[in-house]
Amino acid sequence: MKRSAFLALAAVPLLPARARAQEDADPATTSSRPALRVLLGNGDATPAGDGTFSFGGRSYRGSFSRLQDGRVVNVVDLEAYLWSVVPREMPPSWPAAALQAQAICARTYVLQRSDPRRQYDLVPSEVNQVYGGIANESPAAAAAVDATAGGVLTYDGAYAQIAYSSCCGGHTEASADAWGSAPLPYLDGVVCTWCAASPNYRWTATFELDAVAAPFSSELAPLGSLTDLRIGQRDSSGRARAFTLVAQRGSLDVKGTAFRLAVGARALRSLLVTGVRPPQDGSVALDGGGLGHGVGLCQWGARGMAQQNRGAQEIVAYYFPQTRVAYLGR
Q1: CB of 322 within 8 A of CB of 303?
Q2: Cα–Cα distance between 164 and 89 in angstroms, integer?
Q3: Which candidate, 191, 37, 56, 32, places its Cα nearest to that of 114?
Q4: DSSP string, 137-202
Q5: What's the predicted TM-score (pTM) here?
Q6: At residue 122, does pLDDT exceed 50?
Q7: Of the candidates 159, 84, 148, 83, which has an alpha carbon nearest to the alpha carbon of residue 114?
Q8: For 241-277, what is each residue's pLDDT tens digit?
Q9: Are 151 and 327 within 8 A, CB to CB?
Q10: Which partner from 65, 226, 293, 328 sits 20 to 30 angstroms from 319, CA to CA?
């Protein structure tokens, strides 16, 4: 779900392992650790007097400021932000090494996005990373953040581009295939034998042919009713890059990403469609695997590797080959 772009970032010092954000009245101005700005939105924010504040019924670490349009921005220490993010992006009950790999990825993602020229760095949703303040923190996730303090993925002297999703279904996706971007050697896709325990590893999704046709009604109008659906093209990971909509008087080719958006990303859990069954009673069933775009870290794969006693650095090295873990300030 996460797609990132490189942005310039000034050098930041190494982060101490555990220094609570409430010790600093305003991390942006009084802390030697990097702080970031998370746009919370419109609403009332009230200081709590202990280095925290409330907004929208939630408590947040750090301080807040307002943009000219009145929206509230949380200024928060990077590591404190990660205490809240990691358990929202990965279940805190999962093995420590998997949580640590998630922390390294989440930290790198933040530093890619931070840019002092912008009014804020991130939003607290799946558009960037899910962040809900203090209530989302957990001891296990905080321990994973602390154990990797300052750890980031790098490639060729710069931050690696970070992406992750729930389950790759057996093969991660190349970023160039997923998004049409320039190929990256560490995001070229790898075979994953670790995510089979995911409930989304294999699935079948059934769609009414009329519902499939509806988003493409104008293009299909001269061709008549939709009668069948086929995989038009696959990439090296096996994902559908195009679908062919077969109608009474011709066919229409649709890009895989456009097709998934049209039928619903939750309904079609990934583009790793392994087969299309013959239409029956006005419906068509697709067999597939995985959940999400499949680029970068496979979170269920990280869980599986951790269960086999693989460490966090080994996990991220597997899903991001040719990268290395570096530590800020070292």
Answers
A1: no
A2: 10
A3: 37
A4: --HHHHHHHHHTTTEEEEETTEEPP--EESB-TTBPBPHHHHH-----GGGS--B--S-TTSTTSS
A5: 0.87
A6: yes
A7: 159
A8: 999 999 999 999 999 999 999 999 999 999 999 999 9
A9: yes
A10: 328
pLDDT band at 330 (very low <50, low <70, confident <90, very high): low
- Rounded distance between C-alpha atoms, residue 96 and residue 86, angstroms: 11
Residue closest to 224 by CA, chosen among 246, 255, 254: 246
Q: Is 325 helix (H, G, I), strand (E, B) or coil?
A: strand
Q: Which of 307, 261, 293 is nearest to 166 (CA)?
A: 293
Instruction: List the structure tokens of 215.
Output: 């988003």
- For position 16, what pLDDT does the model report? 28
CA dist., res. 123 & res. 114, Å (int) = 11
Q: In this structure, are residues 137 and 113 in contact, taking their beta carbons and an 8 Å threshold?
A: no
Q: In the block, which residue shows the tokens 């220490």?
A: 77
Rounded to whole angstroms, the Cα distance separating 299 from 293 reads 12
Q: What's the rounded Cα separation, in Å, for the pair 58 and 65? A: 16
Is the separation of the CB atoms in 231 and 255 below 8 Å?
no
* Phi, psi (degrees; rounded to nearest 5) at 96: -60, -40
DSSP SS3 for 274 = strand
Q: β-strand 151-155 against 158-159: which pairing, if any?
A: antiparallel
